[in-house]
Amino acid sequence: MRLLSKILWLLAFLAASFCWMVLFEHGFSMKGFSQGVREEWQTLTELVTGKDDQAVQETPANPPTSK
Q1: At 23, phi and psi to the nearest 5?
Q2: Residue extents of the structural domains in the chain
Q3: What is the DSSP letter of 60?
């Protein structure tokens, strides 16, 4: 039972760290957070699986904003 508790605390720590990283890198707005979670999760899954997505490679990291 103690091992299960440690695993759950580790998962909670990883989730909280991921959310804080996204908030600080992409802004403290819902739009920035939701887009940031998508981008960072995609990057993380590509890092783990080793697969490259063509759509991500063609899209610039910071696309120019229209004025």
Answers
A1: -60, -45
A2: 2-49
A3: -
